[in-house]
Design brief:
The chain has 153 residues and is mainly alpha-helical. It folds into two domains: 66 residues, Orthogonal Bundle (Arc Repressor Mutant, subunit A); 70 residues. Helices cover 61% and strands 9% of the residues. The strands form two sheets. Strands 1-2 form a two-stranded antiparallel ribbon. Strands 3-4 form a two-stranded antiparallel ribbon. Helix 2 packs across helix 4 and helix 5 packs antiparallel against helix 6. It is rod-shaped, with a radius of gyration of 22 Å.
């Protein structure tokens, strides 16, 4: 069942599923509509039924939906109740590499015997570009799954 769920969890269905996991309490259709920023309760109901058919959520005695199983999602990692894109971890690697390269460049100003060649500077620029791309794409995926919180509470 994990593989089937993994293949069908995308778009609004994935957004609804992530909302239910984050909420960690029984939720109704209206709450899912607001929390997952869906257009109507009928859209929310359709995605809830889809998740229920996959065996990931179930209805309680009061008609609310609760998490039944936490599924793995392609390209994402669960950290507690948050679904984090793997791209964020790749960006951390490039952030570390960039910080190390910049440190070496800065040390070259202090230590006269340390010479930074043009090839190293070029590699630093490539690392910077890679870091920025991974961070931007990771943040874009993260925002897609975590819509803005309602501020008027």
């Amino acid at each position: 069942m994990q593989k089937m769920a993994n293949n069908n969890l995308e778009g609004n269905t994935l957004n609804v599923y992530a909302f239910i996991v984050r909420t960690d309490k029984p939720v109704g259709t209206r709450e899912v509509t607001r929390g997952a920023e869906l257009s109507s309760t009928s859209v929310a109901h359709r995605h809830l039924q889809k998740l229920e058919n996959m065996g990931l959520i179930e209805r309680d005695n009061y008609g609310n939906y609760i998490l039944k199983e936490k599924s793995s999602i392609d390209g994402h990692v669960w950290i507690g109740k948050n679904l984090v894109p793997r791209l964020m971890f790749y960006s951390l690697f490039f952030i570390g590499a960039f910080a190390a390269e910049v440190s070496i460049i800065l040390l070259s100003f202090v230590i006269e015997s340390l010479v930074v060649e043009a090839g190293f500077l070029f590699a630093t620029v490539i690392t910077l570009v890679s870091m920025l791309l991974f961070v931007m794409e990771g943040v874009k995926l993260h925002r897609k799954l975590n819509p803005k919180r309602v501020k008027n509470k």
